[in-house]
Fold each of these.
Amino acid sequence: MDKLNLESLLRKNIQKLKPYQAKEIPCKIKLDANESPFPVKLSDFISEINIHLNRYPDPEAILLRKALARKVKLSHENIMPGNGSDELIYYLILTFGGPVLYPAPTFAMYGIIAQSVGVEIVECSLDNNFDINDEEFLKLIKLKKPRLIFLSSPNNPTGNTFSTDKILKIIEFAQENSSIVVIDEAYQPFSSKKGFLPFLKDYDNLLILRTLSKIGFAGLRLGYLIGEKNFLYEINKVRLPYNVDSITQYVATEALNRFYPQIKKFICQIIKERQRLYRELLRIQKIKVYPSEANFILLQIENSKSIYRKLIKAGILVRDLSSVINNALRITIGTSEENEEFLKTIRKILGET
């Protein structure tokens, strides 16, 4: 019997695709995945999970949507939760197709999901300050007529927010060219900017993505899409049934209703530590450090791969981004003690103790 030729059965776009890498490397200090460094246990805000696991979850996630809606001061009908923002990005591309336009470098999943679905991707390089090259971006909108435009602001992995004026110019031009703009605000809670929720009423081609992952609940895998009801109605056609499980719905709802003041305290601590870590890194001559509005800091350092390996040997895991940005590392903001240990170790590695 002939052996199955698996590759011949793959769609061509899948043959060329490389999977998203989320490797788990054991280290005592984990500063690689843009998670909150503060442990959150169910017992911090829940005494008993009062749900019946023999029943399917609420298919409409009504209580969760209402809890999210209260935080953004909108109707729950303007909210669609998903199994992480990744699922919602997938639904968006599945619903509207391509081309899909986004700046580069940015969150890898826009491109990976678009390629897996089989639509054209269009990348527009950021300028030297990691801001949007608006002239080039507008040209690509006119030339390529993208169905979807993704803008992550604050941007992962660079950490900066894009200029509000440039984003508004893109939204307006996209509207004239029948393109949808999705602002991914995963890191907005850490930013000094207010974000784009106030503009939803002004532009009918605007959608906003947010998540609970960065503010202490990465283990729940809960993202949510904010937009007009007519948009969500169409996207709901491709949503898998019961896509947010009962435990996630219950825990997230309780966290939003009972634990949110503590979440805000954690966010303030992360911002304070980010500012301190940034100041300390500026004092290290061999490092180029970039200002950040997120819960991480991007830096460039000569021989970054070697530095990355030495940090792992010392028990500190950061993100190696040298394949995306030359000699770049991304450092998630940890606790004060973790950040101090990172500073002490990087100084020692660079001989600046």
Note: The chain has a mean pLDDT of 94.
Amino acid sequence: MVPAPPSRRADVQQRADAGPADGARRRPDADPAAGGRRSVTASTLVVLNPASAGGRTLKRWPEAAAELAAGGVEYELRLTTGPGDATEQVRDALAAGCRRIVAVGGDGTLNEVVNGFFDADGEALGDSATLGLIPSGTGGDFRKCAGVPASAAAAARAVVSGSVRRIDAGRVDYDGAGRRFFINIADCGIGGEVVARVNRSTRKRGGAGGSAVFLWESLRTLLSFGGRDARIEVDGAVVERTVRSVVVANGRFFGGGMHIAPEASLDDGLFDVVIVAASGRVAALSGLPALYRGRHLSRREVELRKGRVVRVESLGEPLLFDVEGEQVGQTPATLTCLPGAIALCMPAADEVR
């Protein structure tokens, strides 16, 4: 795994100062500062990345904590301490019988939590456990796809509501170099290059500012990234192209609001595979507005295919993968859709989003 950006190398593993509403429902034996990794004893584990969105995630936490307390949710709060920590925390919790995991942070934090729903061998853990999301971070793309509220308080109410939607997950198997799971989008090519730059950027932040950073780095990369020859196989059908990007989508948005896969569904058992052929700088730049609006599929350099198993091989220099906002791995790789693999907490029908 490529090292995560500084924002993911979270602070010390200590209890957040979330105010009386938080302490009202947190189990008294759930203090992460006690040292070592202990079994989770509550039915709900909250995994929070304190460095997400430049530290603003931690500051927003009391809003969500108050809603969880009001809903009678007893939970343990754990702060992430570094790359991969969220995944291990979730695996330990599910092994101990935890029934609900809540990710608090951006798309990268959510991805680490999702990977905790599978063991090191790729086998599913905690089939009856649910996943909640209280979003904050740079991109926020998955919450747009799933209809999770942007407000921390409203997202916490979705966790409390008990409403659940079964969604698909994706698995990336890198040739001889491990695997990664995702629930939104994995892409290779220019996306991996952009994310690598964003994660190095001193301007990385959440909200509208995060979208601006993605756009800026996308423009910079468009001017410097040439096409790469690649072989793409979708359920046995082979395409060979000089590509700018190969996007394997479960959800619809990526890159801080780009509507890359407007026809994708989180629960149809299929990937939408968007293949973007190499084109000149003028054509690439002129296509950006259509990309943000989801109106790019009719452009001649764009091809859409649907399938359950996707194989991507570079015929020259490897293509970097962007997996839900983190640069992880490179081609060659095989991506497989896992229908209904995750039970996602959703807002109640009468919740205003």
Note: DSSP finds ten helices and 15 strands in the chain.
Amino acid sequence: ADQLPAYKKPTHPLTPRAQDQIRALNGRPIEQIREHAKKAEKRITDVAGSINDKLHEHEENIAKRQKRWDKGLDTENRANEEAWSIKFRGKVEDITDQLEEAMRGIIDTTVAAERMEDSLKWLHQNAPGRLEQEYRTHLSQRELSQSQNRRDTQGTAAISDGPTPGPTPLDGSRPVLTGVGEIFQDRLARKKDEYTSMSLGGRYAHNNAYVNFKRLVHDAKYGDERPQPRPETWFTETGSPAPGVTQRGDDDGEDDIVVDRTNISTRCPITFQKFKEPFTSNKCPHTFEKTAILEMIRRSHVRAGGTGNRPSGNRAVECPVTGCSQMLTADDLYHDAILNRKLARMQRAEQQAAEDSGDDENE
């Protein structure tokens, strides 16, 4: 196979064409990494929720059987069922730990892609000026060296006055500048060191994907029985994983779910109808019906995140909840799987209560 020629460092500043080629490096591949990561995050979270749902359901059934066993009923397979239940719990916990580790790996990959994207942008903005400065410094140093040589040889030989014509001296030497790849790799390595020097809590405890994973697993395990631990308690002092809102108010209305001493409204503040597909904001503790909030954003003439005088950025609206001034774009909203689960539990409880009431009336 043909071998590439030996690498030679640049001897001149970047041309406009070279600068355009650097800018073109940021493109679809990095966006594809981000898209694949989002799909993987959702898949891992769904699987973790599903297996813990199965475990919770199994343990509820075991609890019902326990009451019968305590009365001496149907005890033939009790030992086997209890042993299998312990084994099942251990297996689910092991798989959940593996899924959580995989989630951290995906987050690291996403951060690495963003780090590369940011470093390429920085390179396009800063490398041309840096190489231009290096080039001018080399020329200045060469001119000083040539002037010194002329002064040293004036008494012994006749030499021509003035600098050597052109950027390349007669001896064939050229300036040697820092390679663009070196500048990029140095920037990338420094940013990676900044990230890896952070504690695990600093990396993951406030990452939306990781928070959603932890919330969903906790909800699958415990439902509304116990509060979700705070993110700062998820990792130990050594950095290892620790072992295993909306409106606040004092009155519990029929349209509220009481969770962790907060009342989560089950009605959209835009439509005032009960949620069918809740979308929650990443910027504020407010939730809306998906179609309602996205339609508001679609009709908005306000844009957020743009630069310059021309309209740019994403369409945005001020949070519809009175007293909240956060500007929301479609990217600031996410499908709230936790609230969906809580709504489903509330509906099942209402149905069960209605059935129990009907049974009482028939007796």
Note: Residues 244-262 have pLDDT under 50 and may be disordered.
Amino acid sequence: MEKLRCVIMRGGTSKGVFFHENELPYDLEKRKEVLLRVMGSPDKRQIDGLGGADILTSKVVIIAPPSRKDADVDYIFGQVGITEPEIDFSLICGNLSSAVAPFAIDEGLVRAKEPITKVRIYCPNVDRYLTSEVRVKDGKAVYEGDFRIDGVPGTGSKISLDYSGTAGLITGKLLPTGNRKDIVDIKELGKIEVSIIDASTVVAFIKAAEIGLKGDESPIDIEKEKDLIDLLENIKIACAELANLTGRSPLLPMIAVVQKPVSWVNFVTGKKMKIENVDILSKIYASGMMHKAYPVTGCVATGAAARMKGTVVNEIISEKGKKDDTLIIGHFSGTIPIKAKGSEIDDEFKLEKAIVYRTARRIMEGYVYI
């Protein structure tokens, strides 16, 4: 058996296995085989590997010295298939991105500068940059703190991530269809409105009422309704065709089911959520299941859509959400805020700010046997 050095890290509400690039084969097919073996895929339980049998934990990250002079580190993300022997390297994981800078600092790839170290991250697979700011002490990232994010127990050190440079990341355009709102015709449903936004990832936004959801459903409630999951998948397929995404990634577009806030029960804590400060309620469908929290990449797309007049999201958000610098998104496991700002120039929207705050934790370092 061979062994590879790795680190397991939580970033936001996701968890993944981190590698230095030189630990892995340079041949991409061999690299894929090794990573599938590491995670225990394909297997719905991933029982023979490090995967957690969930879209939030079946992830790998590859970190390397910067390939560009204007970056501090390279970051490659892989979403590992659970039941299929596939790894999608064409995306970035917004939540796990929050663990990239701490990893790079702790591993000596980036020199720590107290009290805050700014790390410019280049994502070669998507040709985009992220900027992260991390609190440091004695040459290492600080993980302890009093900042809390929903979907993760306890508190941690606040990490900022700026995604303003990720507009058009997948398709090259913030509006892949050229429209702020389109109509798709779904066989089981008829015609529905949809807004497809490409900012950090591609998300198709639909209104909850269009598919019969009230807003207080849990992910388990939705996933046990096979007809509803099939309907969401068919909407995804139709939106992929509309945005010219067919065959590019099995994850895209994500489907965000949005509505005005109603009272709901936090999926993680079991507590009833207050809706007074929530601007929009959203549920994400991706990869055949409901996201149990909210992907940061989806948060960025939601923030961009909220600032664009004429989108499904902009029509739904509260008046406070339209005026405030920060948008509060309600999801299955709580809320997530995003500072989003943009400007309209000649009917064209430019995303100027998309800042999300997360926490991260170094959980384990050692060797994985393959």
Note: The chain has a mean pLDDT of 96.
